[in-house]
Design a protein that fits this description.
By secondary structure, the protein is an alpha+beta fold. Helices cover 21% and strands 35% of the residues. The chain is built from 7 helices and 24 strands. The strands form 7 sheets. The protein has a 6-stranded mixed beta sheet, covered by helices on one side. Strands 3-4-10-5-6 form a 5-stranded mixed beta sheet. It is globular, with a radius of gyration of 19 Å.
Length: 324
């Protein structure tokens, strides 16, 4: 796949220019296998990551019966996670794995999921929650290493989306704005005034590279409010959640399972999620995370998806603001 062919295949917009990184696309050097409990069903799932050819991008192989590209085209809005749908399957909680793959430069990867017969009529699959962060995925990728991804008789250059002008999306008082910058930077704010131990937090990244991500973002675990746990479980969610894979905060008692890995771990985890969701902008083995300064406040997976669709030119409204 020549560079010009990749450029022609990519969907551009007034906001984005695809530029060469001067590097070749990569994949993992060997396979990675992880088995663990899923967050929402609480059942066991096995995931196997396999090397893939250049230009193929990241995609999910569902019990060898269906394939879903890790693309915003297949994203469906669901509570508390990112879900991809295609070929009669749904895959939930993909964000931590995709975050690790995007940040560590795994451009092409076949992701096989075996669910140990934990199916529904909709063929619903889930990625293991592991410890609630992306740390185990990053460590596994570092252990096997990366290699240049080949394509037929050659290689494929990696492209990166560069933001040309400011843009934003919002839902009520939540927003994501992006501004042209020389490198990738993320600033994220959360606000939980009813939970004093969290309160209002902000986290701003240095220029985002593999080392910074691995040390400062990947270890941040998912979090929940203790007083909301019963309601969520009644709704069929977080059945696999525990103090082993989440940090839990009470309105009155504060953090129930310290110590935290960072004083602002909740806010850092939002950055982890955002990177995973922005990876859905990537196509054909090219970077999904735009070169920009991204500023987010009180965001979530639905708003993250709105932002990616805006980047992709799929939201054709005159205003980027939407109401929930």
């Amino acid at each position: 796949m020549a560079l010009r062919d990749t450029l022609k295949a990519l969907k551009s917009s007034n906001f984005i220019s695809w530029k060469s990184t001067g590097k070749l696309q990569k994949t993992i050097a060997s396979f990675i296998e992880k088995t663990g409990k899923t967050l929402h069903s609480g059942k066991l799932t096995k995931v196997k990551l396999l090397p893939e050819l250049a230009g193929q991008g990241r995609y999910f192989d569902c019990n060898s019966e269906g394939v879903i590209q890790a693309s915003i085209t297949f994203a469906e809005e669901t509570p508390l996670c990112t879900t991809l749908c295609g070929d009669g399957f749904k895959i939930r909680t993909v964000e931590h794995l995709l975050s690790a793959l995007e940040a560590t430069g795994v451009d092409n990867c076949r992701i096989m999921i075996s669910d140990f017969d934990d199916r529904t009529a909709e063929f619903l699959l889930q990625i293991p929650i592991l410890d609630g962060s992306a740390r185990e995925w990053v460590e596994a990728i570092e252990q096997v290493g990366l290699k240049v991804a080949t394509y037929q008789d050659g290689n494929c250059e990696k492209l990166v989306p560069v933001l040309n002008k400011p843009m934003h999306v919002c839902r009520n008082d939540s927003f994501i704005a992006a501004f042209p910058a020389e490198d990738v930077r993320i600033s994220y704010g959360v606000s939980f005034p009813q939970v004093p131990a969290i309160g209002c937090q902000w986290f701003s990244s240095a220029p985002l590279d593999v080392s910074f991500y691995a040390k400062q973002i990947a270890p941040a675990r998912t979090f929940c409010i203790y007083e909301e746990v019963e309601r969520l479980r009644d709704a069929g969610l977080i059945k696999g959640g525990s103090t082993e894979n989440a940090i839990i905060c009470s309105v009155d008692k504060g953090w129930l399972n310290p110590p935290l890995r960072f004083h602002d771990e909740a806010c850092r985890h939002k950055v982890l999620d955002l990177i995973g969701d922005l990876s859905l902008f990537g196509q054909y083995g090219c970077q999904g995370l735009p070169v920009a300064h991204i500023l987010a406040y009180k965001g979530g997976h639905a708003l993250h998806a709105d932002f990616v669709r805006r980047l992709a030119g799929e939201c054709l409204t005159t205003s980027a603001c939407q109401t929930a």
